[in-house]
Amino acid sequence: MKKYDGPDAGQVRLDDPWRDPLASGWGEGDGSGAPVPTLPAPATEPEPGPRAADIYLEVQRSAAFQEVRRRYRRFVLPAGAAFFTWYVAYVIAATMAPALMARPVAGVVNVAMIAGLAQFLTTFLLTWAYARHARLRRDRAALELRWDTQEMTRGARP
User: Sign (positive/negative) of CA torsion 125, 131, 136, 138?
Assistant: First the structure.
């Protein structure tokens, strides 16, 4: 923190040593009136070769990537629909059938309490099933795709 003399002697300026003027935005002044640094123009044309964006598009169109996406969708869409249906059924039953939800099961425990706790249980079960499905059906193929992509982008230009 520095205090300056002169017409703005009452103002205190904070100098942040971690501030990166290039990351903070283009054309943004730092309050000192100094010009904002700009990147120099490249001196030569980039080397010919595949661009990283082209490589990622190629991977996205590959059969292996499409298979990973297909496996993901085959699990997530039905599981998400089933869980959402179960949740909506619970909410509708709680609002439309209060007599059913208030029916005692054991002592003070009623149907609504059991259904509410079952919501938590199904959340944990679905999370476990998703992690298991990902580990057994998608992770290995996705890791192979990642390694292939890394090898292809090693010499690629941005």
Answer: positive
Distances (CA, A) of 17 to 14, 20, 21, 90, 103: 9, 8, 11, 55, 66
What tens digit of pLDDT does each residue of 111-141 get?
Answer: 999 999 999 999 999 999 999 999 999 888 8
Residues forming beta bridges with residue 157, ordered by sequence position: 51
Across the chain, mean pLDDT equals: 80
Distance CA 137, CA 38 (A): 48
Q: Are the CB atoms for 140 and 71 separated by under 8 Å?
A: no
Tokens of 96: 């439309």
Whole-model pTM? 0.59
What lies within 8 Å, CB to CB, of 101 at 6+ separation is 93, 94, 110, 111, 112, 115
Q: Over the range 73-101, which residues count as b (16 or more CB within 10 Å of their CB) and which as e?
A: eebeeeeeeeeeeeeeebeeeeeeeeeeb
DSSP state of 12: E
Write down the domain spans for the chain.
52-153
